[in-house]
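Input record, target 12 of the design panel.
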């Protein structure tokens, strides 16, 4: 159940980052896809580092941030490739 929450939080984080940072937005579908991957990675990273930020709230926050960060990274790479 926690992993599903991580994926959903990542999707929300990716879409929020895309809405705020229009320059890096990939569209709703791809913001969600990248956010889901980022949320999963963020949750796994927090687990591997044994960081417990008060249970489910920390899971949601960590996954949302993971989704947003991965979206920005992918957006930067996409922008760099378009300029080449």
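The sequence produced for target 12 reads:
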């Amino acid at each position: 159940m926690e992993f599903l929450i991580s994926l959903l939080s990542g999707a929300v984080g990716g879409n929020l980052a895309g809405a705020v940072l229009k320059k890096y937005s990939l569209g709703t579908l791809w913001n969600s896809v990248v956010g889901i991957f980022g949320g999963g990675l963020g949750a796994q990273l927090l687990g591997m580092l044994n960081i417990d930020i008060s249970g489910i709230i920390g899971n949601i926050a960590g996954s949302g941030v993971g989704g947003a960060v991965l979206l920005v990274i992918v957006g930067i790479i996409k922008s760099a490739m378009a300029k080449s």
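The mean pLDDT is 88.
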